[in-house]
Amino acid sequence: MGVIRRAWWWALDYLYVTARQLGALVARADPADLRTGDRTPVVVLPGVYEPWGFMWPLANALHDDGHPVHVLPVLGYNRAPVAETARLVGEHLRTHDLHDVVVVAHSKGGLVGKLAMLAEDPDGRLRAMVAVSTPFAGSVYARLVPVRAVRAFLPTDATLVGLAAEREVNARITSVGSVFDPHVPAGSELEGAMNVRLSTPGHFRVLADPRLLDVVRGVLAEVR
Known about the structure:
The chain has helices at residues 2-26, 56-64, 82-95, 108-119, 148-151, 158-165, 210-223, and strands at 42-45, 69-70, 101-106, 126-132, 173-178, 194-198.
């Protein structure tokens, strides 16, 4: 039953990611429309092979709460190296003169967010981050995919090893994981961070867990 259950969870996860990718393709939303609001600003960072629209449901819910939400279409499908993407995040913060920002990130986006906090934020614009399904310790499955954008998640990758050694920003990170992540078998726990495990299984489907929005709102409330 354990194997059957996990296979079913895996199938549901891929059904979810397929639906969200299709939704992102047909979305006609203007990213600038999300930037209105007078509450704590949010920067949303998707995972690898995810366009900004992939996280539209979460971004839209936070915007409805009154938060200006910033997405970065310049990232495309987020296939560039983590360091390059973190640099673009830093540029966006300065260009839009954002302060007291909370990053909401999925998977690779959490690695980008942490590096931005460490190396691209000398003015202290980033206050906190909620990272969902982020492979902070890498994923052994990355060796099975002969693509540079995925091989970057190998546990031995220099960027990941370097990020693991830098712990000073971990206390400002809330790392959200799932009871079962088929892509990150070691889980998303981060030493020194607030670690939360949600009951919805899946690497992607956890984004739809109603409690995730509660976690993000809780972090935003602390920043106010």
